[in-house]
Amino acid sequence: MSHESYELKAEARERVGKGSARELRRNGLIPAVIYGDKQAPISIALSTNEVTKRIHAGGFMTTIATIEVDGKTYKVLPKDYQLDPVRDFTMHVDFLRVSGNTQVTVEIPVHFINEEKSQGLKAGGVLNIVRHEIEVQCPADAIPEFFNVDLSGKKIGDSIHISDLTLPKGVATVIADRDFTIATIIAPAGGVDETVEEEGEAEA
Fold first, then answer.
1. Which of 51, 69, 98 delimits the end of a domain?
2. What pTM was computed for the model?
3. What residues make up the domain containing 11?
4. Confidence bin at 31 (pLDDT 50/70/90)
């Protein structure tokens, strides 16, 4: 499962537009919108500090939040946010309403484990990561936090494909027409340590 759900308090925005947004930011607030689920969009304002903390904590785009607006609560999933290109602060956030039946498309980070058990890496090979994230479709209440890719026994020239991963029930990759590559182990420019490779093969 993804990160633990959290709550945010918001206030409804009566006025929208650039002037209103600038005024909100001067007052330490971020303009945002809640949309989807066949309901009218709701314009809201959130605490800049609270949202920024959530973004930097990781998993922001894959964690369901509960937003309280004027006594009503909404289950949402962040779908997009904008950062100021110069000062790097959050300028706007889009939230999608979700329920238990909502299917969402999200990018799940890939973690590589057991690098010390890879013969190719011990011999000086280099892990060439093709995809740092994998785009999947899944229920909103069952978003994986990350995918683990096990490098145990991988040698120079080996590739890891999506078929090497066991996806949780209900989770499907957006790319479904091919067995795409996640990473490869390639030889370094100076060649490999053949002794380590041979030792690894002997152990195997």
1. 98
2. 0.78
3. 6-98
4. very high
